[in-house]
Design brief:
Layout: H1 8-11, H2 17-48
C-alpha cells in the first residue's frame, strides 16, 4: 500500500484561497443582513399587529 503522509487538501493544486476568503466575507455579510432584516420585520409586526 502507498503511504499517505501528506494531507491532500493542503497540497492539492488549484486551491484558491482568495476566492475562499471573498466567499466567506460575502457569506458573513449576507448573514448579518438577513438577521437585521428579520429583526426589523419582527419589530414592525409587533408595532402594527398589536
Amino acid at each position: 500500500m502507498s503511504s499517505h503522509n501528506e494531507i491532500a487538501y493542503s497540497t492539492a493544486d488549484g486551491n484558491d484561497y482568495a476566492e475562499h476568503e471573498s466567499t466567506y466575507v460575502f457569506f458573513t455579510k449576507l448573514v448579518k443582513f438577513g438577521t437585521t432584516a428579520v429583526i426589523i420585520v419582527l419589530i414592525l409586526m409587533a408595532f402594527f399587529l398589536v
